[in-house]
Design goal:
mainly alpha; 20 helices; disordered N terminus; disordered C terminus; U-box domain-containing protein
Length: 354
């Protein structure tokens, strides 16, 4: 398994982005937390109050009772009720997440994820997501065989199941050795599809999961081959999407694989990146310049394309009024863009000579 030695060193809120926890409120990415789809309709307010009251008084007995009712020997309705209540108990209390896992809930919940009943599948996915929020449970969930069922839910589940499966896979990917296993299970194309076709929350969850998974080189290649540049460019072009920063972070991470550069150009990324340099926020401008700099480093053709899009005036402005790091990147890119104009025979020389 080949991991990248370093990630982009963008800084936000005084900290390097690569050092941010993925559920840190200051992160550019979404907070992939539990139960963001609201309460399940089978759980009335009264039943929730009774459940939480019982849990506070004698949670161990209640948990054991619920785990027993996840078994396939019970009816689907009983399994649904047990999974729903486990999800409630694990919603906000880390201690319950540990107790539920120790009571043996993980394997039967994983079995529910493979259910043909879509609602039962959704309940199983959401309960596993809640349990995966506890670091102590991540390894057990992965080793118990959760990855492939979660990937199937990502492909065939309800919209909520897909979102929560993406979130659960993100949590499992925070263990480095799981990244390649998740990629090889077919998650990357499904996450790219979710990034392109899902709702706002799904797009945020997919981008976060992809950012985490793509620290593995082979997952970067999978993402590019799965057509990730198309939704990334589209989201970056839409300033109202609230996805410009997230998409730029993912794109920047992918720039270390050669396949990414022609893909960006083919999807119309150059004019979008130049526009961001001109009208984006300071952080967006810096990220766009960083991507353009990597794009142009070894290609006279790409330098010419970027220059023809009118990049030099906004780069000059950024070199005068941006952050110190943005100024450095803008100046380096300006120098690159001016080189082809001073070289005879256009691109006759190899890019290594430039």
């Amino acid at each position: 398994m080949e991991m990248e030695n370093h990630r982009p060193s963008f800084t936000y809120m005084g900290r390097k982005f690569s050092d941010l926890s993925l559920n840190d409120d200051s992160s550019a990415f979404s907070d992939c937390n539990s139960d963001r789809s609201g309460e399940f309709p089978t759980a009335s307010s009264e039943s929730r109050r009774l459940l939480l009251s019982c849990a506070s008084e004698n949670s161990d007995d209640l948990i054991n009772h619920l785990v027993a009712h996840l078994d396939s020997s019970y009816s689907i309705d009983e399994q649904k009720q047990a999974a729903m209540e486990i999800r409630l108990l694990s919603k906000n209390k880390p201690e319950n997440r540990i107790k539920i896992a120790k009571a043996g809930a993980i394997k039967p919940l994983i079995s529910l994820i493979s259910s043909s009943d879509l609602q039962l599948q959704e309940y199983g996915v959401t309960a596993i997501l809640n349990l995966s929020l506890c670091d102590e449970n991540k390894e057990l969930i992965a080793s118990s065989g959760a990855i492939k069922p979660l990937v199937r839910a990502l492909k065939m589940g309800t919209p909520t199941a897909k979102e929560n499966a993406a979130c659960a896979l993100l949590r499992l990917s925070q263990i480095e050795e799981n990244k390649v296993a998740i990629g090889r299970s077919g998650a990357i194309p499904l996450l790219v599809n979710l990034l392109e076709t899902g709702g706002f929350r799904a797009k945020k969850d997919a981008s976060t999961a992809l950012y985490s998974l793509c620290s593995a080189k082979e997952n970067k290649i999978r993402a590019v081959q799965s057509g990730i540049m198309k939704p990334l460019v589209e989201l970056m072009a839409d300033f109202g999407s609230n996805m410009v920063d997230k998409s730029a972070f993912v794109m920047s991470l992918l720039m270390s694989v050669p396949e990414s550069k022609p893909a960006i150009v083919e999807e119309g990324g150059v004019p979008v990146l130049v526009e961001i340099v001109e009208v984006g926020t300071q952080r967006q401008k810096e990220m766009a310049v960083s991507i353009l700099l990597q794009l142009c480093e070894e290609s006279v053709v790409y330098r010419t394309m970027v220059a023809r899009e009118g990049a030099i005036p906004p780069l000059v402005a950024l070199s005068q009024a941006g952050t110190s790091r943005a100024k450095q990147k803008a100046e380096a890119l300006i120098e690159l863009l001016r080189q082809p104009r001073s070289i005879s025979n256009g691109g006759a020389r190899s890019s290594s000579q430039l």
